[in-house]
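thought: fold this chain, then report.
action: predict
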Amino acid sequence: MTTPFRSLPDDRRPRIAVLDDYMGVAHRLADWSRIKARADVSFLTEAIPETEMSARLRGFDAICLLRERSAIPADLLRALPELRAIAATGRQNRTLDYDTARDLGIAVMTTSGSGNGIYATVELAWGLIISLMRHIPEECAAMRAGAWQTRPGNALYGRTIGLVGLGKLGGRMALIAKAFGMEVVAWSPNLTPDRAEAAGATLVPKAELLERADVVSLHLVLGQTTRGVIGAADLARMKPGAILINTARGPLVDTSALIDALQAGRLRGAGIDVYDHEPLPANAPIRQVPNALVTPHLGYSVEETFTAFYRETVENLENWLDGRPSRLAGS
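observation:
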């Protein structure tokens, strides 16, 4: 038997919180006027600590999530008796307990997938690769200090990229690598030779990929079998002067082992866009490693993706206010 959705409040205006709007853009990328005419909307630009979530979200009837920036587990849902709806972005959110929300009568609405975010993440990965290979951050800093040409970089042509994961993003990485004139090798736990060949790559054992690749780029989904897929022993296998790129999920890599490898000079550098805990604490050691090029999870964070997300979020909220929640999870 399906649990009926919690009804809208009948003694006051509904209250809606838009979570994790770090860049403060949600309000201008969609037309919220029809929602604001019927409900009180709060745009929260700071991340809420996990220990404060229940207190900060208490009293809101609906919350809007931007992908997986805030975890919404079962115990938090049970601590929010007034929560009636969740407007989540993307088709699937691994940090949201859908089953508990359904059992509590909370309507969970979704949007279409990341769209341009897939392309944007791959573009960022190549930006990190080229920046590291050509020393772009260092040369920019040197220019600002008055210097001119302080170190030579390296071309990508003729080098080897190792793709750990060859799904949608990994496949696009392979396509672009070919355009640069690179050899492409790939590995993942379930990759087959035929699928690798179809994507323009050669399937090799993980150890061989690490030993051969000048660039190792991660494009795996985080799960029980992939957590820590790149550890100290794997980093030690990488050829001297290689670079590691992670635009997928932070826990795929042993961060402490990566810092050790970078500080010891065993790797040329690393381009990191994702972290074990986000937002990354200000005192996180990786921030201070000179040959780590770190970015604040910019992968899918482009205006085109956010515009699509928030416009569909507004549509979902309007339909929910009308009593007919749309794009329901699992439907």
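thought: worth noting. The first strand starts at residue 15 and ends at 18.
final: tokens above.
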